[in-house]
What we know:
Elements: H1 2-9, E1 19-24, E2 30-34, E3 44-48, E4 54-59, E5 66-69, E6 74-76
Antiparallel strand pairs: 1-2, 2-3, 3-4, 5-6
Amino acid sequence: MRFQQYFRELQWPTVYPAYGQPKADWSNDLWVEEYxxxxxxxxxxxxxxxxxxKIARVTLPRGFPLLEAGTDYxxxxxxxxxxxxxxxxx
Length: 90
């Protein structure tokens, strides 16, 4: 019971880092995630080419972590609210 009260009274940060985890794809493009803040919109990624030019902005569904990316695909894992992997759509 004490923990519940502690977390209710906890003050969350008002400032977060600008970026989350970067990833490189198979084309040597760099995917940079906006920092994932709880309760914010689904993850937004900005993709830069090897010369540093912004080439795309990609929104992935909430709860779909980016594992790998290519020129025409992204791979991730769908999970339900309990964290159980869900079958993908083909």
